Amino acid sequence: MICKKILLLKYILIIFIISFTTGCANYIAKDLIKPNKNIKSHKSKINDIEMSYYTLGDKNKYPLIFLHGALVFTDYYNDLIEDLSKEYYIIAIDIRGHGRTTIGNNSFSFTQISNDIIQLLDQLEINEFNLVGHSLGGIILLYLSKDYPNRINKGVSIASLYHYNGIDFNNDKFKFFTQDGFRKEKGLYSNFILKVIDKSYHRIGEFDKYKKTKVILSETESVIYPNLTTLDLNKIETPILVFVAEKDKLIKPSHTIEMSEELINSEYIIIKNANHDRIVIGGKYRKLISTNIFDFLKL
């Protein structure tokens, strides 16, 4: 009898945990991607995809491209984008398979993603621009600077990397990024971050597409990670400001610092106590980040 009661309590606890975590994930997702009435949404046919992007600010101002991190999408950064639009004309892009941009038939390689972005900017008749990228967006900044050096005026890399050895595969928070690539945890205790992202895609009506993106990332294995060398970095002449999240549990802060030191025209700023996502998502560090971005880009 006692064993039956314990088993019943266990099931009740499991149901409670599932309900609680699901409810929390949904609440957080709703708060993270709250709409911004000032943002204008657009879609363009680019290569093999329909690319979604936002614009914000005065079109007569200098253009600033914003690129999001892996799995998430532009809406997560609405508050920071709003701040940056005070000085620049913002084009914030959902890369292939993310947000409201379709998956297409081509690869998810950094070279392909970079070409997608250049093709969009050609269509918009934007020849030169500044670029801010978080995490994955920072990787793409490096590839764009390497392959299209005459297009980027200045770049800002936030909590990013240049090589997969910069990833802390032993971290507890981002267990879905493994040495073998993206792997979704299954079962009751699957990653809470993924739950929040899942709910975010539900809210914008893109969940089925997002599931396919995760499958593609899993099948791509470790190729989803960057593999640039210090020699590659030494050849990049674009001025790049690098933000280091001091408490980053995904990207080793020492690696991000090394990246800045190997770039020939770079400087870095360590944001004390910031972690990988909260360095840009949420309000705690936003003013500090945007102020330093403005100061760097105006030099």
| N-end to C-end Cα span | 75 Å
Question: What is the CATH C-level name?
Answer: Alpha Beta
CATH topology: Rossmann fold
Write down the secondary-structure element order.
HEEEHEHEHEEEHHHEHEH
**Which word captures the global form?**
globular
Number of domains: 1
The helix count comes to 9
What is the averaged pLDDT score?
A: 89
Describe the sheet with the most strands: 8 strands, mixed
Q: Provide the structure class.
A: alpha/beta
Query: How do the strands of the widest beta sheet line up side by side?
Result: 1-2-4-3-5-6-9-10
What percent of the residues sit in helical stretches (DSSP H or I)? 25-40%
| CATH-scheme architecture | 3-Layer(aba) Sandwich
Kindly estimate the percentage of residues that lie in beta strands according to DSSP. Answer: 15-25%
The fourth-level CATH homologous superfamily is Alpha/Beta hydrolase fold, catalytic domain
Quick description:
With 299 residues, this protein is an alpha/beta fold.
Structure characterization notes:
- The chain has one domain (2-298): Alpha/Beta hydrolase fold, catalytic domain (Rossmann fold).
- The protein has helices spanning 2-32, 78-84, 110-123, 136-147, 192-203, 207-220, 230-234, 253-262, 286-298; strands spanning 40-46, 49-56, 63-67, 89-93, 129-134, 152-158, 177-178, 181-182, 240-245, 266-271.
- It is built from nine helices and ten strands.
- The radius of gyration is 20 Å and the shape is globular.
- The protein has an eight-stranded mixed beta sheet with strand order 1-2-4-3-5-6-9-10, with helices on both faces. Strands 7-8 form a two-stranded antiparallel ribbon.
- The chain starts with a helix and ends with a helix.
- The longest helix has 31 residues, at 2-32.
- The protein is an alpha/beta fold and 299 residues long.
- Helix 1 (2-32) packs across helix 5 and helix 2 packs parallel to helix 9 (286-298).
- The relative contact order is 0.13.
